[in-house]
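Protocol step 4 of 5: obtain the predicted structure for the target chain.
Materials: sequence only (see below). No template structures provided, no constraints applied. The aim of this step is simply to have a reference model before the mutagenesis design in step 5. Sequence pasted as it appears in the construct record:
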Amino acid sequence: MVATSKTVMLDRAFCQGARAMKEPVNGAKHIYITEYDLIRLRDLLVVAREYLSEKGEYLDELDNELEQASIVGPEEIPSDVVTMNSTVVLKALMGEQEFIYSLVFPAEAGVEQNKVSIISPMVHQ
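Step 4 output (structure tokens):
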């Protein structure tokens, strides 16, 4: 999947911004996912549950979100939806501070590259 860039406005702290990314814009939260990402994320959950039991809460949340997701083709993902490999620019409403992160699978995550794992606590706040 091609990486895309999204901008999310923060009202205070970064963690609030992480929550804001998940908040619905028009009321109901709707989750879209491609079949390819769904398969990869389900495989990730199987392995992560075996080796990362301390992340159980985040894994359960991810699993629940996958259950609710609408499976669509890559061309059907709305432009304002953050997907795997998306780059997100988080901007503080108060001040000029920006944070740029990419949402990735755990093997690709790295603080130095601003790549955040889908099972990171930051994603699930």
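Step 4 remarks: The first helix runs from residue 14 to 22. The beta strands are 5-10, 32-33, 70-71, 87-92, 98-104, 115-117.
Proceed to step 5.
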